[in-house]
Design brief:
alpha/beta; Barwin-like endoglucanases; Transferase, Pyrimidine Nucleoside Phosphorylase, Chain A, domain 3; Pyrimidine Nucleoside Phosphorylase, Chain A, domain 2; 4 domains; six-stranded mixed beta barrel; four-stranded antiparallel β-sheet; 18 helices; 18 strands; 39% helix; 19% strand; globular
């Protein structure tokens, strides 16, 4: 073995969307090249190149001095066998970091700047720290609308684009922030049963206890390749898949891997993320749901209207027919918060069960109805009645079962976590307020979405009368540590306020 080569060793560590390499401190290359922990290196083997962040190891049982350890992410990226000889060199800093620094200093970036940044991120030239710097620099109100358009275009061009060869490809997206809001899993089978094409690619949770992909994964496989998606949608007219495996706007998935632990979810990044993903998925017609409420992501009507203008500005210039619906975001939608509990609610609505959550059913029908009205053969105002007929006739349920089977049905178990604790009212009165953020946080601390059975099961909604000691909700968990943390959090703040009927926060909008 040459002094400037090392043997690859697979180190079984999940570094989540970041290539990490491990060098022994006694490695001759480490000493000769002056590598430091968290510096970037370039690994070359058989014509393949990998950029990775260095971690320094003092334990020979992890990596020997003559080896280069690779995390699971890096090992898959390099695509070589263990024991293969590789060369290691310093990596050149990404040139586009100059643009990030200019943005930090308040300068305006152009399309070329955003293209360079997106390309460097996709090519793994950015560490997570560098991506965090970009997110902070462009967060909140630091992007004007033209920059937002440039960012969306750069994210869109970072990966593949699907072409369904049809004039109308429908989709819907909620900006999030409302626990339990699993309308997509009802809208897709209703719209597909109507015959319209609706290939739904969804994200996993960023800061919530469940995303659509997390919940759909309770019922079927969601990690579909573009080829699998094409086959499923040709057969079913719809699907519910995770967007990450389809390589659609992949820079978005890398940025989300940093946004999630930091809890960052700025409006500019959100608009670019949503529209780049939808355009990459081949959508031509899109409904965007913006819930408004005191503990939603959007808390004031003026903020919702400004966000709608941003969506419409970017959508118009990227040639997608886009309509924004501003909806009631005062409280969670449905009764369950967490993948299994939300899947249970969805199936109850599809099965027309008498105890199905009425708010989830109603909102889903409104959204599906608006999408159905994209159909040129449907007159305006008829969409809701068509959607309701499809649901009540059982056609939506049959379509969902068919989609689940075609995507790969799982052994479905809708029983929530075995560890449970009821949180009860401390006084008699009426539920006047439910904190979306707090109820979602309790569900996350309980283990959702990683633990599919964890979450919060709601018994009371806004305006409901309660007596002292009556259960408001139940916490479910799979593991004692999560369970105890969630109980403690709920004891500190349940997220519920009990008062008089006139104190109930009135909706800013109604359907």
């Amino acid at each position: 073995m040459s002094i400037d080569t090392l043997k690859i060793r697979r180190v079984g560590i999940d570094t989540y969307h970041e290539n990490v390499a491990y060098l022994n401190r006694d490695c001759s290359i480490y000493r000769a090249e002056g590598f430091q922990a968290l510096s970037k290196i370039q690994v070359s083997a058989n014509g393949c190149k990998l950029l990775a962040v260095v971690n320094v190891v003092d334990d020979n049982s992890i990596v020997h001095p003559g080896e280069l350890g690779l995390s699971e992410q890096a090992f898959k990226y390099l695509h070589v066998d263990e024991g293969v000889l590789v060369t290691v060199n310093h990596a050149e800093p990404p040139k586009s970091m100059d643009a990030v620094r200019r943005k930090i200093n308040g300068e305006r970036l152009d399309q070329a700047d955003f293209n360079d940044i997106a390309n460097d991120i996709v090519e793994t030239r950015y560490s997570k720290m560098e991506m965090a710097a970009f997110l902070v620099a462009t967060g909140q109100n630091n992007l004007d609308r033209d920059e937002l358009l440039y960012l969306t275009q750069a994210m869109l061009q970072s990966g593949e684009r699907m072409d369904w060869h049809e004039p109308l490809v429908a989709d819907k997206h909620c900006i999030g922030g409302i626990p339990g809001n699993r309308t997509s899993m009802l809208v897709v089978p209703i719209v597909a049963a109507h015959g319209m094409l609706i290939p739904k690619t969804s994200s996993r949770a960023i800061t919530s206890p469940a995303g659509t992909a997390d919940t759909m994964e309770v019922l079927s496989h969601v990690n579909l390749t573009p080829e699998q998606m094409l086959d499923i949608v040709r057969q079913e007219r719809g699907c519910l898949a995770w967007g990450g495996t389809a390589k659609l706007a992949p820079v978005d998935d890398l940025l989300i891997s940093v946004e999630r632990p930091l809890g960052i979810d700025s409006q500019g990044q959100m608009v670019a993320s949503i529209l780049s993903k939808k355009l990459a998925a081949g959508s031509t017609h899109l409904i965007v749901d913006i819930p408004v409420g005191p503990t939603a992501k959007v808390r004031h009507m003026r903020q919702a209207l400004a966000l709608r203008k941003l969506f419409e500005f970017v959508g118009d210039r990227l040639n997608i027919h886009l309509e924004v619906m501003i909806t009631d975001g005062r409280q969670p939608i449905g009764l369950g918060i967490g993948p299994v509990l939300e899947a249970r609610d969805v199936m109850k609505v599809l099965n027309n069960s008498p105890d199905a959550p009425a708010d989830l059913r109603q909102k889903s029908l409104q959204l599906a109805g608006r999408i159905i009205e994209f159909d040129p053969d449907v007159r305006g105002g008829q969409g809701y009645a068509i959607a309701r007929d499809i649901l009540e006739s059982g056609r939506a349920c049959e379509k969902m079962k068919s989609i689940i089977k075609t995507q790969g049905e799982k052994e479905i178990d809708l029983q929530p976590g075995k560890l449970c604790h009821q949180v009860c009212a401390d006084r008699e009165g009426v539920v006047t307020h439910i904190d979306n953020f707090q109820t979602a946080k309790i569900a996350r601390i309980a283990g959702a979405p990683m633990d599919k059975k964890a979450g919060v099961d709601l018994f009371k909604k806004l305006g409901d009368k309660v007596t002292k000691g009556e259960p408001l909700f139940r916490i479910h968990a799979e593991f004692p540590a999560d369970f105890n943390f969630a109980k403690k959090l709920a004891q500190q703040n349940s997220g519920y306020s009990i008062g008089d009927e006139e104190q109930v926060f009135k909706p800013l909008i109604t359907f």
